[in-house]
Amino acid sequence: MITSEKVKFISNWIKSYVDNMPSKAEALVIGISGGIDSSVSSTLSAMTGLKTIVLSMPIKQKENQHDLSLKHQKWLMEKFKNVEAHTINLDKLFESFSSTLNKFDNEHGFANSRARLRMVTLYQVAAAHKGIVVGDLVAYGQFQDVLGNVSRRFTVNMNGEWDGTNLKLTEDFVYSDGTTEQRIWYLTKTGEQAWNGTAKGVIGQAEGLEDGDTFYWNYTIDLPVPDGTMRVTFDDYMWLISEDRMLNKAYMSKFGVPLGEVTIMFEKL
Asked: Which end of the chain has fewer CB atoms within 10 angstroms, the N or the C?
């Protein structure tokens, strides 16, 4: 499929998704940063002809980064009559949040909080306009032991940044026992079908291979568990079920001895 056909296909899919909702959304809401991902997603949304609300939400933003966001806002407004743009400065909200939690100061935690404040803002604007937020990727999964007993369930919210060769994938886990975890993957496409990557806790590098609608991913990691960490190896198999769903089956072992499986269903909202 050539690029122009892909663009038309994705834009039509977004419109079809809205048209087939039980209660049809009245607007598409999307955050823009000036980066490639949000610029492409917002343009595809605007191309649907549906009311599209784009939000720039700076939090202690570098001026040149915010300028890119504003330039893209202006471009969208000039090119598409169905686009409505807003800049919502979240500096004061973030300052209040970080001040309230000053006893729990943690740079990593506050970096994650910025993303959460932006997401809450998107959902508030979407609710006010009876719309939906575009671009969410969520997954639901569970751990099973070798006997098939479910030991733990979780949800994962994901955000990706892709520059054509490198992918930064941020995964925010919420487990059924209330604990949370964030894992950030840095992946590189090393060949026509080959990938490698790393993340905190991963031993060496993870290796991946595409094969049609299947992706194989292998790595060893010091996996966080309730009482510390456990070094395990994952053999991941991912199958693209449809344009918006992917099934992941991961086989977990230690010293070659099977420990169980992880089943995850990814869904693009």
From this structure: N
